[in-house]
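Lecture notes, part 5. Sequence design as translation. It can be helpful to think of inverse folding as translation between two languages: the language of shapes and the language of residues. The source text, in structure tokens, appears below.
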């Protein structure tokens, strides 16, 4: 019968647990009859080396010690955020000890193509890393793994999409500086993307002050400015094939339906913001949506109704009669 003592050590110095036992940490100690056993020591400590020591009544001998490297057994937790041409990666160690990590390897590559180009980097700590030079509106897969002298962990991966790169100069514009009634016109410009063709243009209406409630559709997400705002809604989605180099005249609030979105008439004497987005449908069916930075702002004055027209007509008639009477009086004095 002997005692089984399993020791772990976080660094490379003093690796002989017989001569340098004080540098090692005991994580398992049990009296055994059998020569073989199976012990899970993974939650024990962050360790680079593991030693299995058989202790007999006569003490330890070097021939009875096995020292072996302990590779990371689990992949790091990976988080990836994308902009138009970069992937920003951050990682965290697992909640359970995972061995001593000497370095991390990050890799990103196009997920939907057979292109051999990829971005890869080795770092010695968990610092955030950015891998760039990807095209906009592309599907990209990124991975991370932990490495030490004994081996490497399984690969952790995450797939996402680089954002659409829009030019602010392509944003729609107001047709007229002064607007009144329940509608107003904008000119939708043709949007040019570097490596993709836009599928549609989405327009979102946000009323500055109102108590009305509208049901929002969730197939296309709203801009962050619309969060928790019941008066923010998608009013139209226009197919890109309708917009050529000369532009496309669109009347916001014309009461028509555009790809299942009802372009509801607006309210006079109100301030509105119009957000524009560009959509690109990916090969796997996923739809990318990118909003322009600044919305179109417009104030709708009240339109002149029937009573207004009658009042103007009466005022004009009274003015005309006054002018006629003035002319008659002048002629009589002469």
């Amino acid at each position: 019968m002997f005692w089984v003592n399993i020791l772990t050590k976080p660094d490379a110095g003093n690796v002989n647990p017989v001569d340098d036992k004080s540098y090692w940490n005991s994580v398992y100690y049990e009296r055994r009859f059998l020569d073989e056993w199976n012990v899970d020591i993974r939650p024990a400590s962050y360790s680079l080396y593991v030693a299995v020591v058989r202790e007999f009544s006569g003490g330890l001998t070097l021939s009875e010690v096995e020292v072996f490297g302990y590779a990371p057994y689990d992949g790091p937790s990976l988080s990836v955020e994308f902009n138009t041409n970069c992937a920003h990666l951050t990682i965290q160690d697992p909640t359970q000890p995972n061995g001593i990590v000497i370095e991390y390897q990050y890799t990103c590559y196009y997920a939907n193509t057979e292109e051999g180009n990829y971005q890869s980097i080795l770092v010695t700590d968990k610092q955030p890393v950015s891998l760039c030079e990807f095209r906009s509106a592309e599907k990209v897969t990124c991975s991370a793994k932990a490495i030490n002298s004994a081996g490497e962990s399984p690969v952790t991966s995450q797939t996402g999409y680089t954002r659409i790169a829009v030019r602010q100069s392509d944003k729609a514009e107001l047709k007229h500086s002064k607007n009144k009634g329940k509608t107003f016109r904008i000119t939708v410009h043709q949007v040019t993307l570097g490596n993709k063709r836009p599928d549609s243009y989405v327009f979102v209406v946000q009323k500055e002050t109102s108590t009305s409630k509208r049901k929002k559709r969730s197939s296309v997400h709203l801009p962050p400015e619309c969060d928790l705002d019941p008066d923010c809604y998608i009013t139209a989605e226009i197919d890109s094939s309708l917009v050529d180099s000369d532009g496309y005249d669109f009347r916001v609030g014309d009461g028509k339906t555009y790809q299942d979105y009802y372009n509801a008439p607006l309210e006079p004497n109100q301030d509105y913001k119009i957000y524009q987005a560009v959509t690109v449908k990916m090969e796997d069916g996923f739809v990318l949506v990118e909003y322009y930075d600044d919305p179109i702002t417009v104030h709708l004055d009240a339109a002149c109704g029937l009573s207004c027209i009658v009042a103007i007509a009466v005022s004009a008639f009274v003015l005309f009669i006054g002018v006629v009477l003035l002319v008659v009086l002048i002629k009589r004095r002469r």
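The translated text above is only one of many valid answers, since several sequences can fold into similar shapes. The chain is about 10% helix and 40% strand.
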